[in-house]
Design a protein that fits this description.
By secondary structure, the chain is of the alpha/beta class. It is 36% helix and 26% strand. The protein has helices at residues 12-23, 48-56, 60-66, 90-97, 106-120, 165-170, 246-252, 258-265, 309-326, 331-360, 364-377, 379-382, 385-388; strands at residues 5-8, 28-32, 43-46, 72-77, 83-88, 102-105, 123-127, 131-136, 141-145, 150-153, 155-158, 177-189, 202-206, 210-217, 222-230, 242-243, 271-277, 288-289, 292-294. The relative contact order is 0.18. The chain binds flavin-adenine dinucleotide.
């Protein structure tokens, strides 16, 4: 008999899981609380470990049409604009890691995944209906949605993001906390910027107490800019797209180099995104609970300093479909295998992101040492082979 699989959440993690399951001939139901599947405007980097999976699911053509494939990542001092290091991407990434390094608007990636899921036809999408209650017994898991319906399934996958409702029913010890960082984000048409500020590359500006990253998205028409600073917790922690106070942003960048100041000054609309998270995953038991498993941000939210949150959700999706396809009868065992396969890598990426945050925001002697080491070791310091090679 066909296994009944319910996925909660239609973000990048949930849609990737639906798509991966479809590729293994596993039909799923996906429940999304929003009426329209719409992703907020921002960009993400997707490294070769992730591009490889997306291409394997048939998204190569879609990526070619919408993503950008920068030829390099430049690291610059945010104070002097000096070049500190350079990591060639492009062909080097393909040679070393078997796939390209891409940058893409979240909305574009989300749209590609949704289109592919619809084309596959094996996912029943249920939108505008939030999951409110979850329970399980020896034979099934029951999901109650806002419309009062109960759905029984063999397996429930919580891909419902950082503020996961599903997680609330299986982990009482996991309430997201403010990290001390906020992200200012903007997306601007390159055509609206002075020519000197337009760019086809990724540039990371490392300051003391802040850093900025810029890269092209939407086949190069738009430039995505994100600036992360240490700040007090905003009143609304779970609101992604709060309108930012530009003067406050500029005050964080008072000592920044002229090109960075100019870039920030050329953009009128910024959104504020408080960065919240959980402690890093400590064991497989934090990802699987009988017939219920968590993936993506619901399981292991991470600071964006390694640019891997969506990437790890996509890797999770691949691993989840793999274990579910292999399992004939023992669903809890399959989810446990998923958790054992994924928890250490996710924890390593979470820890790497925290460490990068400390390096990117280093002050005083540490900043001096960082800049000197970047100049000396360049690409070797910036490259992350264990991550980009994949699972
Ligand atoms: C500043 C910043 C920069 C980033 N840069 C990168 C990057 O460069 N590369 C990268 O890989 N990652 C990056 N990330 C991380 C990435 O955005 C997230 O890790 C990723 O989007 C998580 O996807 P998800 O599907 O797990 O969760 P989400 O995107 O949060 O999706 C969860 C979905 O579940 C739905 N949902 C929630 N509750 C319910 C419910 N009760 N019932 C039904 N549906 C529900 C929501 O509506 C949503 O659609 C960045 C993050 C930030 C903040």
């Amino acid at each position: 008999m066909q296994k009944k699989i319910v996925i909660v959440g239609g973000g990048i993690g949930g849609l990737s899981t639906a798509l991966a399951c479809g590729h293994r001939d596993l039909p799923v139901q996906l429940i999304e609380r929003n009426k329209v599947f719409a992703e907020v405007g921002a960009g993400i980097q997707i490294s070769p470990n992730v591009v490889r999976l997306l291409e394997g699911w048939g998204l190569r053509e879609g990526l070619d049409a919408l993503a950008c494939f920068p030829s390099q990542l430049e690291i610059r001092s945010a104070l002097t604009a000096d070049l500190l290091g350079r990591l060639p991407l492009g062909e080097r990434a393909v040679k070393r890691y078997g796939a390209r390094y891409a940058t893409i608007a979240r909305a574009d990636l989300h749209g590609l995944l949704l289109k592919a899921v619809n084309a596959q036809g094996s996912t029943q999408l249920i939108v505008g209906n939030a999951v409110e209650f979850v329970s399980q017994d020896a034979s099934a898991v029951t999901v109650t949605t806002a419309d009062g319906q109960n759905r029984r399934a063999n397996v429930l996958i919580g891909a419902d993001g950082l503020w996961s409702q599903v997680r609330d029913f299986v982990r009482l010890d996991a309430q997201p906390q403010f990290s001390g960082y906020v992200a200012y984000r903007a997306m601007v048409a390159q055509a609206d910027l002075p020519e000197t500020l337009r760019s086809d590359d990724i540039t990371a500006w490392l300051g003391p107490d802040f850093h900025a990253v810029q890269y092209p998205v939407h086949h190069g028409e738009l430039l995505n800019v994100v600036i992360i600073v240490k700040a007090k917790a905003p009143a609304e922690l779970d609101q992604w797209n709060q309108t930012a106070d530009v003067q406050e942003l500029q005050s964080h960048l008072a000592n920044a180099a002229a090109p960075l100041q100019e870039l920030v000054g050329s953009i009128s609309k910024w959104n504020l995104w408080p960065l919240c998270g959980l402690p890093k995953v400590r064991s497989a038991q934090e990802l699987a609970f009988g017939r219920i498993a968590l993936l993506g941000d619901a399981a292991h939210p991470m600071l964006p300093f390694l640019a891997q949150g969506a990437g790890m959700a996509i890797e999770d999706a691949f691993a989840m479909a793999d274990v579910l396809q292999q399992s004939t009868h023992d669903d809890a065992d399959a989810l446990e295998r998923f958790a054992r396969r994924r928890w250490k890598r996710n924890a390593r990426v979470q820890a790497g992101a925290v460490r990068n945050g400390e390096i990117f925001h280093a002050t005083g002697l540490k900043r001096w040492g960082r800049d000197a080491a970047m100049k000396l070791f360049g690409a070797r310091m910036i490259d992350v082979p264990w991550l980009y090679r994949g699972m």
